Structures are given as structure tokens and as C-alpha cells.
Amino acid sequence: MSDKNFFSNLGPFLAKMSEIPSQEWLYLIQHLTIIRKDKGEHLFRQGEFSHMIGFVVSGLVHTYYVNPEGLKRTKFFAWDQQLISPWISILQQKPANFSAEALRTTYIIELDGRVLPEMMKRHRCWEKVSRICTEKVLAQREQREYEVLMMTNLERYHRFQEQFREIKDLIPQYLIASYLGITPVALSRLLSQT
Questions:
Q1: Element (H, E) at 156
Q2: In angstroms, what CA-CA distances link 194 with 3, 181, 183, 186, 190?
Q3: What pLDDT is attached to residue 2?
Q4: What share of the chain in percent tops pLDDT 90?
Q5: Distance between CA 102 and CA 37 in Å, rounded?
Q6: Dihedral-angle region of residue 93 (phi above 0 means left; psi in -120 to 50 means alpha; beta otherwise)
Q7: Measured distance CA(115)–CA(112) in Å, rounded
């Protein structure tokens, strides 16, 4: 796939958030890099600085936390036409508080987040894009908190099925269990009841 084809996937995504003038689109393209991550490779790691603002062109990414005992807890999954970034960490200039790993070969359009301040000074469209991206991250986080605190295991599983219907068959059972906050054995029991 050519660079032009990769970037053509990004255009409609950004256009939903703001009208991007042609000179700003050309400016953006100069700061984009296309990267490939094979299964098991990390995009960024918890505790390390990362400035990645990534747009998944194709593939599947697993984001997770690691607690002090070394136990991984699934945060989220990102796939085609979605953003992946330690967004709050970039905005606050702190190390990433979670890791992101490719679950299959994944192609990403990457923007170095350190150019954001310059972009926002250039044109108000970038302020709008940044605001909407931040709002999406916060809305996603609030929805996730509600699911964990208020829903039963079965309700969370049904929500998972609905939310990730496009990719659910590509996610290993142990990661689904981790996302739901239950053990793989508990997930097996849950599945036998459905």
C-alpha cells in the first residue's frame, strides 16, 4: 500500500472532527510516519516516555496496565480507523501509564505529539481536533469505569460482544477475561451459561 493510500484513510477520520484546510493537511503529512508493528511488538511501554499519536490503518492493538506484582490488566483494544496514544501522558508530559502491543501485524500512521503546540498555533482546526480527541478519551474512560463498577460479569461480557463485534473473534480468551476483570476459568463458566 502506498503512502498516499495510507494517508487517504486518515482524511475522512479527521474531517469528522474539523474542516482541515489544504495547506494544513500538507503540513500534517510532512510530520507523519508510517510504521509497521508485528505481533508482539510494542508501540510504547508503561513507565516510558512516548509521544506517539497513532492512527491504526489496519491491525489490532492491545493496551494494558502492569501492576507492581507484574500482572497485566487489559485496558482496551484498538483496530482499524482508531487512534492509539498515551494521550493524557502526552498532554501532561509524563511517562505513559499503560503499554500498547500489536496482537497481529499492524500498520499505523504516527504523529509525534511534540508538534501539537506548534500545530495549534498554526490553525484553530488542530485545537478542535485535539479537544475532540481528548473528549473521546475521557468519554471512553468514563464508560469503562461505569462498566467495571456497575455491571455484572455477564453484562460486561455482553457489552464487550457489542463494542468489539468487529474484532472479538481475533482476541484470545485470556485477554477477553482480563478486559472483563475476571479469570479465564470464570470466563469459561460464564460462556457455558450463555
A1: helix 153-163
A2: 45, 18, 17, 13, 7
A3: 56
A4: 87
A5: 6
A6: left
A7: 6
pLDDT at 61: 98
What are the CA-CA distances from residue 193 to residues 71, 72, 95, 153, 189 (Å)? Answer: 27, 26, 42, 12, 7
DSSP letter at 182? S
Predicted local distance difference test score (pLDDT) of residue 3: 61
Measuring CA to CA, how many Å separate 141 from each of 30, 87, 145?
31, 12, 6
pLDDT at position 4, please? Answer: 62
The amino acid at 97? N
Question: How many residues comprise the chain?
Answer: 194
Let me know: does 59 contact 102? Beta carbons within 8 Å: yes
pTM reported for the whole predicted model: 0.90
In this predicted model, what pLDDT tens digit does every residue of 71-91 receive, in sequence order? 999 999 999 999 999 988 888
Burial of 92 (C-beta count, 10 Å sphere; 0-12/13-18/19+): exposed
Closest CA to 53 of 88, 22, 84: 84
Query: Which pLDDT tens digit goes with each residue over 9-51?
Result: 898 999 999 999 999 999 999 999 999 999 999 999 999 999 9
Integer CA distances (angstroms), 51 to 27, 68, 88, 165, in order: 18, 24, 11, 30
